[in-house]
Specification:
- The chain is α/β, with parallel strands linked by helices.
- The protein has one domain: P-loop containing nucleotide triphosphate hydrolases (Rossmann fold), CATH 3.40.50.300.
- Helices cover 34% and strands 18% of the residues.
- It has 6 helices and 6 strands; from the N terminus they run βαβαβαβααβαβ.
- Strands 3-2-4-5-1-6 form a 6-stranded parallel sheet, sandwiched between helices.
- Strand 2, helix 2 and strand 3 form a beta-alpha-beta unit.
- It is globular and about 50 Å long.
- The structure holds adenosine-5'-triphosphate and magnesium ion.
- The site of magnesium ion has 4 residues, from helix 1.
Amino acid sequence: MNKDRKGYIQIYCGNGKGKTTAALGLSLRTLLSGGSVYFAQFCKGSETAEMGLCSIFENFVMEQYGTGKFIVSDPSEEDRKQARQGFEHCKNVLSSGFFDLVVLDEIILSVFYQLITVEEIISMLRTRKPWVEVVLTGRKAPRELIEAADLVTEMKKVKHYFDAGVKARRGIEF
Ligand code: ATP
Ligand code: MG
């Protein structure tokens, strides 16, 4: 861990494919350069191929804070509970400064579902150790989060096979 560097806040948002994939790509780059990664998956509680990274890299930790594949409509009480637990844990991870890169995958969706507020996320980001790089992903990024970030990339959907009825596939989407 290089405590002399400055860590930035990145957001990958938008309705095109590539947000989680980009966060995973960045994670690999950090790991392969000797860094450590904490990867939290909000709104998700099902097996993904990327979990396999935990057994390959000892500096990679992935935890899920959701139920099922993802929330489609009203979040359940259990979804709410898990999101809150995840948020509290991520707060500790960020303020400990133990990981070089912290990914908060789909945390933006948990704001949309009112499981976590934007204000809570912004104050959590402020309490992180300055060398920690943070990535937040999810479709509908609120303006306040965009303003708090240093880098925002919007994945723009030009075409998506989801609209033609192609469901998520293992090895491609999960
Ligand atoms: P990837 O993980 O492939 O990089 P992503 O992180 O950009 O994708 P998410 O917003 O996390 O995309 O999408 C999760 C899943 O939702 C996708 O795997 C896809 O099957 C499905 N999906 C894609 N487009 C839509 C849509 N318009 N409405 C609902 N679900 C969609
Ligand atoms: Mg995603």
